[in-house]
Design goal:
Number of helices: 3
CATH topology: 2,3-Dihydroxybiphenyl 1,2-Dioxygenase, domain 1
Radius of gyration: 21 Å
Structural class: alpha/beta
Largest sheet: 4 strands, mixed
Number of domains: 1
Number of strands: 8
CATH superfamily: 2,3-Dihydroxybiphenyl 1,2-Dioxygenase, domain 1
């Protein structure tokens, strides 16, 4: 059957219904080796690969227990460099887990460097959802990103 040309060339082609997407913030981490980063995040945090694009210049979507994030091979020509190339990081990534001690150890075993051990911290925060007590430690991944790994123990709303 020949392809039918619509009588109005500017008529909209019907597209499948797209569900509304709630607002979310998902970091896209710049790394110097996308494929190595996918492997590291899988080994360190149990990240699941959702999708990937490219072989040398990689862009990928990952999820750690449903928390989605992205990574991309750094692109200085587009204004992105990973912390290992820049020599510093400007972002701390908060990873909340049911067992931060085990996740911290898993990240170290996968090649992260310890920034601080997991310890209990108390805080006197203000606001509608104050956090009063938490476990938290930190690692630096092989790409220079600082991951704070923790669990909220007490809060007035227990929101996480």
């Amino acid at each position: 059957m020949p392809y039918a040309v619509p009588s109005d060339p500017f008529a909209r082609i019907a597209s499948p219904q797209v569900d509304e997407m709630p607002t979310q913030i998902s970091p896209m981490l710049a790394v110097n080796n996308g494929n190595a980063a996918i492997s590291f995040y899988n080994a360190a945090f149990g990240a699941t690969l959702l999708w990937s694009l490219g072989d040398d210049h990689v862009v990928a979507g990952l999820s750690i227990n449903g928390a989605e994030f992205f990574l991309a091979t750094e692109s200085p020509e587009y204004g992105t460099r990973g912390p290992s190339s820049a020599g510093f990081t400007t972002v701390r990534i908060e990873l909340f887990a049911d067992d931060p001690v085990a996740m911290h150890k898993q990240a170290l075993a996968a090649g992260a460097v310890e920034h601080s051990p997991v310890l209990e911290h108390t805080h006197e925060t203000t606001g509608p959802r104050p956090i009063t007590r938490m476990l938290q430690g930190a690692v630096i991944d092989p790409f220079g990103h600082l991951w704070l790994i923790g669990k909220i123990l007490d809060s007035d709303s227990n929101h996480l």
